[in-house]
Amino acid sequence: MTRMDCRWSCMSNDGGVRNVGEKRAYKARKPGGGRKKLKPGYDAGKNLKEQMDAAVALYNSEMSLQAIGDELSLNPIKVRKLLITAGMYESGVAEKLQDTFEEYRETQSYKEAILSTANNLQLSKASVTSYLPYQKGVYYPSTEKEKISVGAERQRRYRAMKRWRTDPTEENFWGVVLAYAGVRFKTYSGLPFSYEVRKGRNGEYTKELWIDRREKSKSLAWSSVLLAQKNIKGKVVDRPKALGDIRGVTYIYGMFYRFRLIDVPDEVKEKMKKQHPKKKSTKTESETKGGSNIH
User: Fold this and answer.
1) Distance between CA 185 and CA 165 in Å, rounded?
2) Which of 144, 249, 154, 140 is nearest to 196 (CA)?
3) pTM over 0.90
4) Of these four, 91, 144, 180, 184, which has the most CB atoms within 10 Å of its CB?
């Protein structure tokens, strides 16, 4: 082959000569081919979950956001966002911002809702996002133990609450109770608790709430919740017994405050804001055999 011929031909994969314009023979890609990851072992979702769990543990020991940030080498603003994602951080500013965001989110995309919220509250975009939970990588179990994002869980609660306030029927109120299953509440004295709603053999939810107070699990009848609702006389309810002599009323009191059915005195609000460190307790023989009814 002359020097001039080299301009019009090239070497093939097998070492032979192929003319320009001829299609190259297909060569199957090896498994795992393509651009290699710079950090093969890096998992953003896993790292975020670990950071969140660590922040929650420190927050439960009554450490400040700054102290937690110093301990984990994180910015206090990121610590707050992690706690918001975990459903642990509560404040008037956070609640107002999140409610405003969810209202815009009904008709707008995520980015558009952030901008609208920022304009409405006269805040920067960064300030708005700092009060919103992480959208990716962190998941929480719902009543049905399915994995959905925290953002989707919050939106589900918002829609249930909006539906109930627009049409305050018992059915819509029950929808709110279902949406808030697994959410952290506080009692009159500031003790944390949550509840779950279980399904019966027919696959339908039973009208019974199971209160989870540390190692104990107690049942709360739906009829008791409805009775307490009928006993609301004014906006501010001084103490649980004002809702009636009802089993589990101390838990109903905390739920109604979170649902904004009632308001509570300022000193009670301070108790509810206070963080209580988790204490180890021993189970008695009767407790290990199963749950009990609320007395």
Assistant:
1) 20
2) 144
3) no
4) 180
